[in-house]
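COMPLEX REQUEST
Ligand: guanosine-5'-monophosphate
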Amino acid sequence: MSSQLHTLITAEEIQNKVQELAAEISADYAQTPLHLVGVLKGSFIFLADLARALSIPCSIYFVHASSYGDRQSSSGIVKIQHSLNMSNKHVLVIEDILDTGLTLSTIMEELNKQQPASLKVCAFLNKPERRKADIDGDYIGFTIPNEFVVGYGLDYGELYRNLPYIARLENVEDSS
Ligand code: 5GP
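STATUS: Structure written out below.
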């Protein structure tokens, strides 16, 4: 089956939103050192743009999250790989998309065990219709309908991550 891309959020809209989020985050963390934790792989482009738009110093870490199941539906079993120690630190987790929320809730649970000084979430995209875990982002880029999207870090079969815009991918089988 062939797939077609339909632009949902343009590169310009994305860059404007990144500047807005960065200004808000820079103001909120003006008095405290900030530690960004990106969730691989999807957040890498958003994190790179956001970090460069911040006007405050920050350190950058990554965790790798893998969800068992097919590419478009979380099975609910999420494995997190990291070697972080965020004790007493102000942590902002950077996610590509908040979908069921299962990935993020597992990451938050792991990081909370380390007793950070504060723990918040910045998600580039939000798909609230599919939420299963009781979690919301503290900073959200765009809220989108329940559609499978690619670009700006998000993939389908490891393709399309390098698109500078967000597109809806049509003709993709969704088994969720
Ligand atoms: P969760 O369902 O646990 O909130 O999201 C887990 C991961 O599924 C996200 O970090 C993202 O990598 C992937 N995901 C969820 N929705 C989409 C989507 O619409 N497009 C793509 N490419 N990945 C998605």
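REMARKS: Strands lie at 4-9, 34-40, 58-67, 78-81, 90-98, 118-126, 139-143, 149-150, 166-170. The chain is about 20% helix and 30% strand.
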